[in-house]
Amino acid sequence: MAESLPSLAFLGAGSMGGAILQGVVASGIRTEGITATNRTAEKAAALAALPGVTSIALADRPEGNADAAASARILLVGVKPAMVPDLLREIAPSLRPDAIVVSLAAGVTLDTFASVLGAEAHVIRSMPNTPATVGKAVTGLAAGSAATAEDMALVRRLFETVGAVIEVPESQIDALSTISGSGPAYVFLLVEELTKAAIGKGFSEADARLMAEQTFIGATALLDASGEDPAELRRRVTSPKGTTERAIAVLQDAHLDEVFASATDAALARARELAAGA
């Protein structure tokens, strides 16, 4: 990984923008400056403490987005999807000629960016997930028609400070969001349910949470460290005619494969509704 990044602006450093921002800072990578904007002084204050970050409250400085845009090579657009066109109109006159505009906004197409900024604007659509805060994100990147290989390399480097990166055509971004974007919630739900099962077997809530959470953390760490296929690791835990085999049989009888396919299909249908403005 290169040792530095160009200047960055996070326009609307909310939950996702803030996660990426914190991850970049925590990674220790050098940048040519980071500016972040938020509507309220309270939100801006939370980021102002981060080293090397200039945090702007738009309530105090209404022209803050345009100022931040003028200062940055890479701009990350993190406002709510419905607010994106207005923000783009606001910053368009201030963009540097070499600016790369990166969308964090779910459901907002590259065409939407091009319609405001022009077809020649260098735009990349991203779909990160919240483990960015701990450097364990999965981020999908889709390049707009004017984005160059150098643009993609720079933006890839930015997101690699907070995890893994997959480059996909824009047509796959919504599908990717149903797996990695929403995926942390699926894992948390499984931890919740395993915790409830432990409480039902007489364990205290604290012990139940410790068992369930650390089992997931440990299993994923083992998966990561071993490089093995998850099916192989599952087989190693599942002794023939043993207790785990009996439990796995119940889970498979519940058609988990169909449940996950249906769940991700439902998420994809909703993503398409949102893209259509529903």
Automatic annotation (TrEMBL):
Pathway the protein takes part in:
Amino-acid biosynthesis; L-proline biosynthesis; L-proline from L-glutamate 5-semialdehyde: step 1/1
Q: Which SUPFAM superfamilies match?
A: 6-phosphogluconate dehydrogenase C-terminal domain-like, NAD(P)-binding Rossmann-fold domains
Q: Where does this protein reside within or beyond the cell?
A: Cytoplasm
State which Enzyme Commission number(s) the record gives. 1.5.1.2
Chain sites annotated for binding NADPH? 65
Can you supply one Gene Ontology CC term for this chain's record? cytoplasm
What does it catalyze?
L-proline + NAD(+) = (S)-1-pyrroline-5-carboxylate + NADH + 2 H(+); L-proline + NADP(+) = (S)-1-pyrroline-5-carboxylate + NADPH + 2 H(+)
Q: What GO molecular function terms would the record report?
A: pyrroline-5-carboxylate reductase activity
Quote the Pfam families the UniProt record gives. F420_oxidored (PF03807), P5CR_dimer (PF14748)
- Provide this UniProt record's keywords sorted from A to Z: Amino-acid biosynthesis, Cytoplasm, NADP, Oxidoreductase, Proline biosynthesis
Q: Where is the Pyrroline-5-carboxylate reductase catalytic N-terminal domain?
A: 8-107
Where is this protein chiefly located? cytoplasm
Task: Tell me the residue numbers annotated for binding NADP(+).
Answer: 11-16
Record carries keyword Cytoplasm: yes
Which stretches make up the Pyrroline-5-carboxylate reductase dimerisation domain? 170-274
The Gene Ontology biological process annotation of the record reads:
L-proline biosynthetic process
Q: What does this protein do?
A: Catalyzes the reduction of 1-pyrroline-5-carboxylate (PCA) to L-proline.
As for family, the record states: Belongs to the pyrroline-5-carboxylate reductase family.
HAMAP family attached to this UniProt entry: P5C_reductase
Protein name according to UniProt: Pyrroline-5-carboxylate reductase
What is the species listed in this Swiss-Prot or TrEMBL entry?
Microbacterium bovistercoris
Q: Which gene produces this protein?
A: proC
